[in-house]
Automatic annotation (TrEMBL):
Keywords of this entry: Amino-acid biosynthesis, Aminotransferase, Cytoplasm, Pyridoxal phosphate, Pyridoxine biosynthesis, Serine biosynthesis, Transferase
UniProt entry tagged with the keyword Amino-acid biosynthesis: yes
Listed SUPFAM superfamilies: PLP-dependent transferases
UniProt protein name: phosphoserine transaminase
Catalytic activity: 4-(phosphooxy)-L-threonine + 2-oxoglutarate = (R)-3-hydroxy-2-oxo-4-phosphooxybutanoate + L-glutamate; O-phospho-L-serine + 2-oxoglutarate = 3-phosphooxypyruvate + L-glutamate
InterPro entries in UniProt: Aminotrans_V_dom, Pser_aminoTfrase, Pser_aminoTfrase_mycobac, PyrdxlP-dep_Trfase, PyrdxlP-dep_Trfase_major, PyrdxlP-dep_Trfase_small
UniProt pathway: Amino-acid biosynthesis; L-serine biosynthesis; L-serine from 3-phospho-D-glycerate: step 2/3
Function recorded in the entry: Catalyzes the reversible conversion of 3-phosphohydroxypyruvate to phosphoserine and of 3-hydroxy-2-oxo-4-phosphonooxybutanoate to phosphohydroxythreonine.
Enzyme Commission number(s) of this protein: 2.6.1.52
Any one Gene Ontology molecular-function term assigned to this protein's record: O-phospho-L-serine:2-oxoglutarate aminotransferase activity
Length: 381
């Protein structure tokens, strides 16, 4: 048994959670949860007190994202992964164009390819660590990509494909790890959807979607035609976007949500808005990310994985290590000192660290992390 390495406590970050989801949950959120422990937890989600929390989240998100008139906020159970299936069932009319440049963006395209009532999707692919957007494509009715590819640390632009509106195609953005930490113009999207356990430092299990009037209309049309005689499509109630929206507008969900998740989410949305909103949060994330990229560029054993600087994510930072240093040993030593979840994405299989620098993570803690990594590498043997 080798003794574990001890990083001097004066070097350690205040909080050692750097995961990309679930991500750090702030103490104040946990305190709010404790407070809710005897009033909200264990009570009906169809009664006013819990509905009030849902209303507060929806209003808070509308403010945070400065949503255009007519856009609406829906939520449901199952996380962003469930929303992919909701989109296949309720939003894609016939065929979609997708960009795939990592594990998550690839998964949505794979779902669409398997849906028997949809035509084979058109997939624009880029290598891991790089990025591409879907190009204008005839005969598609949705364009889909991820704002931030969590598996590789790549952030992508969010703007409509030229000509997409004229052809009546929707823009569906998986914003799970980007929403709330990266600037966005919601008017460039028809569905901007995400799970709460990344930027919003809440727990998993829910999806949120900001929907344009065109997206709502599409869901109505798709679901209506699915009920016609001879239609090949099955829209299960659980995957029905119109049912999700009808419930959301009553500040409920189709089926029972985790009330704890709602309480944590509400606390975080309020905190973000109070501190200066998306502008403040995205600056804070950019600052933390810059600390890491600059440190890596100066280091003689580390370098940013994403070569093109414009695609380097400000919320999920990926750093390759020299082959002489095993990233897994660094990750283990950090964990022994309370610094957790710094390993690269499993399926990427690189000698890499991946660090979540969401708004809850203090920029000063990110700086401390760089000292700790240097310390560990120096003392590894
Ligand atoms: C985490 C993540 C998902 C999956 O979220 P779940 O809540 O686990 O379904 C989807 N897309 C992106 C970009 C993610 O980061």
């Amino acid at each position: 048994m080798i003794d574990s390495m001890k990083i001097p406590s004066s070097m350690l970050p205040e909080d050692g959670r750097f995961g990309c989801g679930p991500s750090k949950i702030r103490r104040k959120q946990v305190a709010a949860l404790a407070e809710a422990g005897t009033t909200l937890l264990g009570t009906s989600h169809r009664q006013t007190p819990v509905k009030h929390v849902v209303a507060s989240i929806r209003e808070g998100l509308a403010e945070y994202f400065s949503i255009p008139d007519g856009w609406q906020i829906a939520l449901g159970n199952g996380g962003a992964s469930a929303f992919w299936e909701v989109a296949c069932a309720s939003l894609i009319a016939r065929r979609g164009a997708f960009a795939s440049y990592g594990s998550f963006s690839g998964k949505f395209a794979a779902s669409a390819a398997k849906a028997p009532f949809l035509e084979k999707p058109v997939v624009y692919q880029a290598d891991f660590g790089s990025c591409t957007l879907p190009k204008y494509t005839d005969d598609v009715d949705v364009y889909c990509w991820a704002h931030n590819e969590t598996s590789t640390g790549v952030m992508a632009p969010v703007r409509r494909v030229e000509g997409s509106r004229e052809q009546g195609a929707l823009t569906l953005i998986d914003a799970t790890s980007g929403a709330g930490g990266l600037p966005v113009d919601i008017a460039q999207t028809d569905a901007y959807y995400f799970s709460p356990q990344k930027v919003f430092g809440s727990d998993g299990g829910l999806w949120f979607a900001i929907l344009s009037p065109d997206a709502v209309k599409r869901a109505e049309d798709v679901e209506n035609s699915a009920t016609l005689e001879g239609a090949r499509r099955w829209v299960p109630p659980f995957l029905s976007l119109t049912q999700a929206l009808a419930n959301s507008n009553k500040n409920q969900t189709l089926n029972t949500p985790a009330i704890g998740t709602l309480v944590l989410m509400n606390e975080q949305v309020k905190w973000l808005n109070e501190h200066g909103g998306l502008k403040w949060a995205s600056k804070r994330c950019a600052k933390s990310a810059k600390t890491l990229y600059s440190w890596a560029e100066k280091s003689d054993y580390a370098k940013p994985f994403v070569e093109d600087e414009s695609f380097r994510s400000n919320v999920v930072v990926t750093i390759d290590l020299d082959d002489s240093i095993k990233a897994s040993s660094v990750v283990t030593a950090l964990r022994e000192n309370g610094i957790v979840d710094t390993s690269g994405y499993r399926k990427l299989g690189r000698n890499q660290l991946r660090i979540g620098v969401f708004p809850s993570v203090k920029p000063s803690d990110v700086e401390a992390l760089t000292y700790c990594i240097d310390y560990v590498v120096e003392h590894l043997q």
